[in-house]
Fold these 2 entries.
Entry 1:
Amino acid sequence: MRVDDLGCTIAGRTLLEAVSFSIGEGEALAILGPSGAGKSLVLRCLLGLAPEQAKVTGTLLRDERRVPLADRRALAGLRGRGLALVPQAAAASLDPMRTVGAQLREVCALHATDSRPRERLAEVGLSQEFALRYPHELSGGQAQRVALALALACRPAVLLADEPMASLDCVSQAELVELLVTRCAAERVALVLVSHDLARVVRCCPRAIVLDRGRVVASGALTELLATPPEPITAAMVAAARRG
Ligand SMILES: Nc1ncnc2c1ncn2[C@@H]1O[C@H](COP(=O)(O)OP(=O)(O)OP(=O)(O)O)[C@@H](O)[C@H]1O
């Protein structure tokens, strides 16, 4: 997948400008940057879910098909088998009235995949018993795992993960990131992982782009960005990661 020249303005305010990056099958790319840099907005634009009043420009290239990022209908058609999302607040993204198993079955049927709900649960480290649970019966970490199972059940080409570990403790964060990366690599799914925490992604994403105020201020191999941060925003993130 390649994103070319993504721009987004709302009411004359430029929120994203000339954002470009590419990612291959089974690769992992981090989108880093401080709060308000535009990380989540990039994902929303790719999914055709930018705010109603937003003017979005640029193109998405996938499977040799060029889709204008202004074309919400075409982007909606890519959701599921093309691009799937693991949101920041997984618990809130689940249907409170239906069991985990029912939600998994629905996604499998909707996207006509060969996924089996039981297998999907096992793959994210949850026992079969979780199929009978309602979202309010899940911990934060378990809800994130269910959200990952739902996203992978679509058998997407690209998985977009928006700070999926934000609300978890340190141990659960590390486990979830590891699970994300292993599952995506095993299924040859491209992973775009949004985070403001460089330390959290350094072991799993070989490449990154750094956003600040809607623009890409640095990009390349994470090890190189760590060793020689090219500009102040990356340097501040590296310093924070070193402090621990
Ligand atoms: N619906 C909207 N209307 C107007 N501005 C918006 C809207 N949604 C987001 N923005 C603005 O877009 C900018 C980028 O927001 P975004 O949520 O993408 O940041 P982020 O990098 O993901 O931050 P965080 O790490 O805090 O989640 C912010 O200035 C935000 O105020």
Entry 2:
Amino acid sequence: MTPMAEALTPSGTTGTTGHLLASLQPLLREWLPRQRWFAGKGRPVTGFTPLAATELLPCEGRLGLYHLLLRVHQPPVLGAPPHPGDCYQLLIGVREALPPRLAPALIGHVTRGPLAGRTVYEALYDPRPAEVLLEALRTQARIGGLRFERDRRQEIRDGLVARLMTAEQSNSSIVYGDTFILKLLRRVVPGVNPDLELPLALARAGCARVPAPTAWLHAELDAQSYALAVLQPFVSGASDGWELALRELAKGEDFVAEARALGRATAEVHSALAQALPTVTLGQAQLRLLVDGMTERLEAAVQAVPALRPYESGLRSAFTALAGLAAEGRTWTAQRIHGDLHLGQCLRPPSGPWSLIDFEGEPARPLAERRLPQPAVRDIAGMLRSFDYAALSASPPAPQWAHGCRAAYCSGYADVTGRDPRTDPVLLRAYETDKAIYEVVYEARHRPDWLPVPLSAVRRLSLPDQEARS
Ligand SMILES: Nc1ncnc2c1ncn2[C@@H]1O[C@H](COP(=O)(O)OP(=O)(O)O)[C@@H](O)[C@H]1O
Ligand SMILES: O=P(O)(O)O[C@H]1O[C@H](CO)[C@@H](O[C@H]2O[C@H](CO)[C@@H](O)[C@H](O)[C@H]2O)[C@H](O)[C@H]1O
């Protein structure tokens, strides 16, 4: 089966694709908000505008396959300015009937028009459509506005069997054999996506700590480019840092050697990014903006989670201390960083080195902000928070375990860069505080049972005395 080159924009959407889009409207209204990766939870879906609909396999065959970019209309978040709606990437399969193994992929049944009686479903669950995507990447296909591209120096074998990853994630990933993993971004925005940009830059710089992109997909739409997917080598048999840390904690073992190796891995990635991409010096004006942003997030968080109120002034002091150094003329270097580093973003195969993945940054922040150079300490603070999380979610909680990991991680970082992050305590505290506040809001919204974990950090970080905080 070869992909068909039919691409239809909303105004010109005709024939089968037009009927399919009309049939999907009511079905997606129910289905979309239930998806883990749907970012607009809690607000009703009031409608859709298809930005692009591309037929990859025609419905006339046993399996129809459609690539959609849909703008989803929802009422704006309370108090937020009007927003045209987020754009999502969907891969829709159409079959006469779904085999039982695809039951979890069901979106619904078409009741009217030429497709009446057909079943539409989330095609990523189905190996065949997933293989169509790999084949398109392998052959560098151009279908409508879709551009499948690859690094020709890396081989993509055919015949690799596809399976959808079932892990909880913000996007969707397909593993091919044991060789590649394709991450399909779900909520997409125009512009350069750091999840492709940074691994490509690191690969060019010869940094082996990040799986080098093998192929990627983007869409050209109204003179704008949307990054849609990245294919990377699959780190076979790997566990992530969170799993490994919890395993060691359960055995009563420390994680010091691993934490030190992680510190070195982070430092290697930071050094390569600083060489490959521009760095800037943050002077008084930029630091003022940084501190203002942190303070505003604190204020919003206190509104959202009243449990923060008793610590508000102590937390604020972390930011005013940073503002104080800036006012004295202290500057910091900023560079491109990972942006959302935690133990779950670090992979290690049984006897291999650590790799870092998922350079998308915090998905809730605007793309332009995620691509700004920032102090590398921000990533370090994320990892330090993660050791704390692991230790406090163990039974019994093991704060000393976290202490050892945090020290070893900083030492590992210093092994490579010659700079121990602990020698910059004011900046480190400000970033750890900012992250802990973010986590409080995240847990209050998504996992209220976990709220005590970041709250305990908030309590510690709000203390005036540095000794008591560490
Ligand atoms: N190159 C890789 N090799 C092996 N597993 C990977 C690789 N990249 C990602 N994974 C697995 O896929 C999961 C989701 O990937 P991630 O990039 O974090 O997606 P998301 O942004 O959707 O959360 C990771 O937690 C990891 O288990
Ligand atoms: O999955 P994402 O990368 O989008 O990150 C979000 O979810 C994370 C939880 O899955 C959350 O991370 C927090 O919990 C982790 C343990 O589950 C811990 O290792 C992290 O240090 C802690 O921040 C993350 O904050 C959130 O953005």
